[in-house]
Amino acid sequence: MKKLVLLGGGYGNMRILLRLLPNNLPQDTEIILIDRTSFHSLKTEFYALAAGTSTDKEIRVAFPEHPRLKTVFGEVIRIDREDKTVYLEGGQEVQYDDLVVGLGCEDKYHGVPGAKEHTFSIQTIAKSRITFEKLCSLPPGSTVAVVGAGLSGIEMASELRESRADLKIKLFDRSTRILRDFPEKLSNYVKSWFIKHDVEVIAESNITKVEENKIYNHDQVIDVDAVVWTAGVQPVKIVRDMEVEKDKFGRPIVTKYFTLSNDEHVFVVGDCASSDLPPTAQLAEEQGERIVKVLRHRWNNEPLPETMPEIKLKGFMGALGKKQGFVHLADTTVTGRIARLMKSGLLWMYKRQNN
Fold it and tell me: In sequence order, which residues have a C-beta less than 8 Å from that of residue 281 and are 6 or more positions away?
């Protein structure tokens, strides 16, 4: 039996499972899914778990069940491409014929002293739980700093405001305005929401050091009770350590078929793969679609297409608490209650589809 091994149960590999099961997998092939948890986590909703407005159960989706799908739970520690073997903590080994690396990302601290030791994260469900415990236990009047005003930082700060009206929240943004690469109308809407809800946005910030209960913005020292870091990501260490050609962000450079340039049996998907597009769940799913296309051609002994469909992201959605939000699709911006309903509806559809 040939083995297609999927490392990580994230958005990219979930899309692969959705397309191959139950009836599109060759009879001589089985899938082995390796993940540290027994469920798919909705990473786009980790901010709500950390803020305390969503429960752990609400952001989990069960992995599918199939006679030729085997799930292995454990931590990947090494990939040996010569022996085509994946090694897990505890000594377990899993061999593969084809491998899809979708192990996701972790926080990138940009060399800021103390950032790794003294900040909280929302990059994994386990770390989001720890962040929730810290933020939930803060006494009234405490100050929380959110470093990074990208989509994750915006949603984290707004959701925390809805959860804890008694906290002082500071959102640090390196740019001159929030979401500077998008229409000014959208930036102004998000900024006005923060002003209305008493979230202090500190523009043109530069965090130079983090200490326990202190954060340094340029030369200014600011007393804080907790810091949530949302200021960039990088591939997990096992991917950064792979001996392959990488881009400036440490992500393996892939071919148009999403394989390594020197190994056609290793695919890379999601936050691990080099791309000119921003790392999003939507991108991972589109990459997963193309990997399935390549696998089907191979399984049918057909030549691979000379060109692959270009990935065009449809846009993005963001939440400002549970009642307001913003959507940017096809150069059209929608804000307010309707935008929030659109995001909630998309989440409901995703969970229903994958269940």
Answer: 11, 43, 44
8 Å CB contact between 147 and 119: yes
The sign of the dihedral angle between the CA atoms of 320, 323, 327, 332 is negative
- 176 SS3 class: coil
Compute the average pLDDT of residues 271-299: 95
Cα angle 99-100-104, degrees, rounded to a multiple of 5: 140
φ/ψ of residue 193, rounded to 5? -65, -45
- Is 202 in contact with 171 (CB distance < 8 Å)? yes
Q: What is the pLDDT of residues 200-243, one digit of tens each?
A: 999 999 999 999 999 999 999 999 999 999 999 999 999 999 99
85-95 pLDDT tens trace: 999 999 999 99
What is the strand order of the sheet 168-172 is part of?
A: 199-202, 168-172, 143-147, 226-229
Cis geometry, peptide bond prior to residue 22 (ω within 30 degrees of 0): yes
SS3 call for 132: helix
Mean pLDDT of 122-145: 97
Pairing of strands 324-329, 332-335: antiparallel
Is residue 74 predicted with pLDDT exceeding 90?
yes
CA–CA distance, 90 with 235 (Å, rounded to integer): 23
What the block records as the tokens of 220 is: 């200014």
First to last CA, the chain: 27
Single pTM value for the model: 0.94
DSSP 120: B
Residues 6 or more apart from 107 whose CB is under 8 A from it? 116, 119, 121, 123, 229, 231, 232, 233, 234
Chain segment 293-345, per-residue pLDDT in tens: 999 999 999 999 999 999 998 889 999 999 999 999 888 899 999 999 999 99
Domains along the chain with CATH numbers: 2-36+74-106+233-299 (3.50.50.60), 109-231 (3.50.50.60)
